[in-house]
Amino acid sequence: MQSKARLLEDEFSERGKIPGVRYLQSFLLFLCLFAAYLLRVSISVAIVAMTPDKNSTDFLLETHYHIPVFNWTQHTKSLILSAFFWGYLIMNLPAAMIGRRYNNQMLLAMSMMLTVALSLATPSLVVAFNWPVLVLIRFLQGLTQAFTMPMIHGISAKWAPPNERGRLVGFVLGGLQFGTVVTLVGSGILASTRSGWPSIYYFSGAFGIFWVILWLLLGSESPDTHRLITQSEKNYIKSSLTQTVSEKKNLITPWKEIFTSMPVWAVTISHAGHNCGFWLLLSEMPTFISAVLKFDIKSDGLVSALPYLAMWLCQFPVTYFADYMNKKNVTSLTFSRKFWNTLGMSGGALGLVVLGYMGENANAAICMYVFVVAIGCCTNVGFNINHLDLAPNYAGILMGFTNAVAALGGVMAPTVCGFIVHDQTSVDEWRVVFTLGAVILFFSSIFYIIFGSAEVQPWNEPKNESVGVRSFIQMKTDYGSSAGYTSSPSSFVKVTSKYTMFVRQ
Q: How many CB atoms lie within 10 A of CB 246?
């Protein structure tokens, strides 16, 4: 079957003069994560602008333009920053389960629109009701954005051929870093204008609306339902996924097998550890850069964005090289996933320890900050894509489960930081935070090395669909395609289901 998929790939590549529709879908999902992170990350810079030091130029600028500012404690700010992840934690698994039954394209669009509506309402509500309403808004945005990653993984499982998975899904996940870059740079610039920090929420909301329109016009849940895809590309994608992806929508989720699978727990622990380190840096580094390294709000945003720009740029050669090595069978897929994951997480752990001892040396601290974040791109071809390896039929469910557990990292990072850091200018207190993050990253990396795998798990095969039946379906589909018969395989599913019931009687 792999050789047939390879032949179809070669045939499709020779005929196609323009990129396939699967690349368009990857680009749209990239923009989805870009928009999601505009809405999610902007609070990291906005909260600095909303609570400026009274002796800073930012405070003078905002009072001059009559922009409301607030006097919130570090504990209050940590509560605001962590509120998103409580909603995210609660809703991730239910979101994945909902995605098993309903159209992923529409769920993705609806979740984005709800997040946008909350963002656009934020400035007026916060001015009227102060920080408690901001905590509530961030919690609700966590609920709505919980649909994003499970839906993206569920859609990617139907669009990304195995030998292109690293590149396509890696590119999609690059939307996280690119959205972070634009948010951190743009938010700092917007906050220093006459419109002040409220413009941050309006800009991110406007782009979210733009993405929803694009997605509804050009997006699709699967190749079967896209109006622009060619038959040759559809055949190539479906043939390459035949052995791992079922045609059925309402599959019975093997919960027991998922919860007792060590490879799944390896992904989960790695995901949680990575999230802890990632959100520690993303939510708290703007404060560290402002309080310890003494950068103003505009420079703060630029410096905070630099590591994520490096991460975004680095992920292109990393994902392409990983896919090339896998295609040439230089190493096993399991070894490849473990190698890149270890490089990303253990390398980041080492960098965090060093960062804690940089003190107030701004240049050295920024260089190490760039290294820690940039090397994290290696996890895009490590645990981040491993859900699709283990169980393509349940990729959305697996992402919902691991993302729910990983959301604890997003909750704990700012919360623990708020308990440790009482004096924002204290290098010693920040060193404790960075060292703790390094320990978590390193432990997660070791756990993945021991228990991780990239083999398709036995429970990926639906219990009510035998291999023989699926082989028969594929045989009929291949015969029909070669004979010019273009009807979808769903008609064969109905026939063979009845045949299977008759045989079992």
A: 19
What b/e sequence results for 47-78 when a residue is b if at least 16 CB atoms lie within 10 Å of its CB, and e otherwise?
Answer: bbbbbbeeeeebbebbeeeebebeebebebbb
503, burial (CB in 10 Å: exposed 0-12, middle 13-18, buried 19+) = exposed
CA distance 387 to 190: 38
Look up the CATH number of the domain holding residue 114: 1.20.1250.20
| Short-list 320, 210, 371, 341, CA closest to 269 | 341
Most confident stretch, 10-14, 49-53, 367-371 = 367-371
- How many structural domains comprise the chain? 1
The pTM (predicted TM-score) of the whole model is: 0.72
Torsion angle, CA of 212/215/218/219, rounded to 10 degrees?
-160
**Cα separation, 179 vs 174, whole angstroms:** 8
For residue 471, pLDDT beyond 80: no
- Alpha-carbon distance 496 to 505, whole Å? 14
Q: Is residue 312 part of a domain?
A: yes
What gap in Å lies between CA 151 and CA 221, rounded to an integer?
9
Burial 203-217 (b: 16+ CB within 10 A, else e): bbbebbeebbeebee
Q: Identify which of 441, 495, 433 has the alpha carbon closest to the alpha carbon of residue 469.
A: 495
List CB contacts of 218: < 8 A, sequence separation 6 or more. Answer: 24, 28, 228
The per-residue pLDDT for 194 is: 83
Asked whether residue 15 is assigned to any structural domain, the reply reads no
Tokens of 135: 């905590």
- In contact, 326 and 205? CB cutoff 8 Å: no
- What are 38-55's pLDDT values in tens digits? 999 888 888 888 887 655
Range of the domain at 101: 22-227+260-460
Cα separation, 396 vs 152, whole angstroms = 8
pLDDT of residue 70: 83
How is 141-152 classified by DSSP, letter by letter? HHHHHTTHHHHH
Q: What is the pLDDT of residue 501?
A: 36
In a domain, 502, yes or no: no
Q: CA angle 185-129-144, nearest 5°?
A: 60
Residues 402 and 382: their CA atoms lie apart, in Å, by 14
Neighbours of 469 (CB within 10 A): 17
SS3 of 74-136: the string is HHHHHHHHHHHHHHHHHHHHHHHHHHHHCCHHHHHHHHHHHHHHHHHHHHHHHHHHCHHHHHH
Residue 251 lies in a domain: no
The CA-atom distances, in angstroms, between 395 and each of 54, 73, 405 are 49, 41, 16
